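To illustrate the input format used throughout this study, we show a single complete record. The first block contains the structure-token representation of the backbone; no residue identities are included at this stage. The design step must infer an amino acid for every position from geometry alone.
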């Protein structure tokens, strides 16, 4: 049986939104996600183990916090919504389990079947 989806709009203004960029994340996709989310929330944090110069430059022009480090479960504490980018299956397993335990809504664009919400095709274009 396929899963039926119910469209919902969420006010993220006062939510803590965390974007986790794995080592295998596409820089352009991360930038599109950050740009789109920065207009929706006042509390946006990007964790990236090796942010590019472009991601660092954008941190000066777009209102988000950039933290250069490998993922640690503590990065999720206080988060309301997490978006995980990249194709790292082990990282996705770990983040998925942590979000389930902590009650945090999770979106893994490359794995919509494990996500609490999905982003429509072309959302970050």
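Output of the design step:
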């Amino acid at each position: 049986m396929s899963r039926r989806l119910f469209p919902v709009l969420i006010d993220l203004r006062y939510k803590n939104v965390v974007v986790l960029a794995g080592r295998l994340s596409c820089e352009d996709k991360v930038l599109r996600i950050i740009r789109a989310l920065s207009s929706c929330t006042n509390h946006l944090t990007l964790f990236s183990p090796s942010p590019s110069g472009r991601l660092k430059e954008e941190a000066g022009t777009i209102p988000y916090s950039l933290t250069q480090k490998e993922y640690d479960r503590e990065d999720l504490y206080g988060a309301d919504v997490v978006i995980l980018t990249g194709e790292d299956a082990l990282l996705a397993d770990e983040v998925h389990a942590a979000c389930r335990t902590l009650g945090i809504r999770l979106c893994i664009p490359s794995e919509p079947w494990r996500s609490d919400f999905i982003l429509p095709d072309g959302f970050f274009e």
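Structural context for interpreting the output: Residues 91 and 97 are 10 Å apart (CA to CA). The chain is about 30% helix and 20% strand.
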